[in-house]
Amino acid sequence: MSPDSSMTSQELLRWYVEAGVDETIADRPVDRFQEKTKAPEPKNVPAASPTAAESGGEKKGLADAAALSPAPSPSPSPPPSPREPSPEPSPGPSLLPPEGGADGEVTAAVHLAQSALTVDELRRALESFDGCGLKKTATNLVFTDGNPEAPVLFVGEGPGAEEDRQGLPFVGPSGKLLDRMLASIGLDRTGVLISNTVFWRPPGNRTPTAQETAVCLPFLERLIELVDPKVLVALGGPAAKSLLAQTEGVGRLRGRWFTYSTPGLPRPIDATAMFHPAYLLRSPGQKRDTWRDLLDIKKKLVS
Ligand code: URA
Q: How far apart are CA 31 and CA 28, in angstroms?
């Protein structure tokens, strides 16, 4: 079915929602067909040069992610690590900008994040930061929810539609499940802190690019330093990859303990991974394993 001129505006809206168009990203629609037939710009008007953020693009992303990973290999896609996580520590991502300072946004992010001395300052720093392209299409910054003094920090992938609307992480359907998971081990948002690997919603809930993740990582690393939790939990594969510096999937990482360390931390932090609540909503059969993981986290917290 396609929209036609006999449709009422309500029918047309419903058609768009059913087709997956549930967000507007600009106040006015842009007629791209008209744009094509427009006369070319007069030659003597200087063209605006793209901003660093506009020209950054995804093609740099893989190299940046490799530079941020702790593995010394220059290869952009290192082979799977043969290391067992315990007792060998995972060194955590490097705080240094990529070699040669080629990536201005990541370098700026590192400096800005490191200048923050409190979680509130870090939030304000993020608010002022324009180096992540996701900010352009998002409604709100989604940084943290919960208690910055908490002994445990949960890190998901990135905000969804409801998080974008409210400016808070994990408040949509997967957040409701996360709350029930926390309650099952006697926790709620007064006793945990929750954040993500990227702080603005990727349009259409797509996976964040390596560049978007790399540019947000200095802020996440600084958050971990400032909160200095006893336990760090990555929710889902992308968060596990960023935080645990491992290449295996979350199915292989869950149930194991790693250590996360950066030069700004007084000591290494115990870190683990769990299935993402959104995955558990689709695959409830994995809840049994997740229950074990939750009990393990609880044990670590009281030890
Ligand atoms: N999924 C995430 O990874 N993070 C959120 O904040 C919400 C859903």
A: 10
Atom in ligand 1 nearest the alpha carbon of residue 168: 6
Whole-number percent of the chain with pLDDT over 70 = 68
First-residue to last-residue Cα distance in the chain: 59
Q: According to the per-residue pLDDT averaged within each range, which of 42-51, 76-85, 178-187 is highest?
A: 178-187
DSSP 193: E
Among candidate residues 146, 147, 155, 271, the one with its CA nearest the CA of residue 219: 155
- 273 domain-assigned: yes
In a domain, 56, yes or no: no
State whether the beta carbon of 202 lies less than 6 angstroms from ligand 1: no
User: Is 71 a member of any domain?
Assistant: no
Least confident of 23-27, 79-83, 120-124, 147-151: 79-83
Q: Is 163 in the pocket of ligand 1 (CB under 6 A)?
A: yes
* pTM > 0.85: yes or no: no
As for how many domains the chain has, the answer is: 1
Distance from Cα 140 to the centre of ligand 1, integer Å: 14
Distances (CA, A) of 284 to 95, 182, 249, 275: 37, 16, 18, 11
Please tell me if the CB atom of residue 157 comes closer than 6 angstroms to any atom of ligand 1. yes
Residues in the chain: 303
**Of the candidates 153, 145, 147, which has an alpha carbon nearest to the alpha carbon of residue 172?**
145
The CA distance from 34 to 27, in Å, is 18
Residue 151 included in any domain: yes
Three-state DSSP class for 257? coil
**Residue 118 domain boundaries:** 101-302
Q: Is 196's C-beta closer than 6 angstroms to any atom of ligand 1?
A: yes
DSSP labels for 108-143?
Answer: HHHHHHHH--SHHHHHHHHHH----THHHH-SS---
Q: What is the CATH number of the domain that holds 222?
A: 3.40.470.10
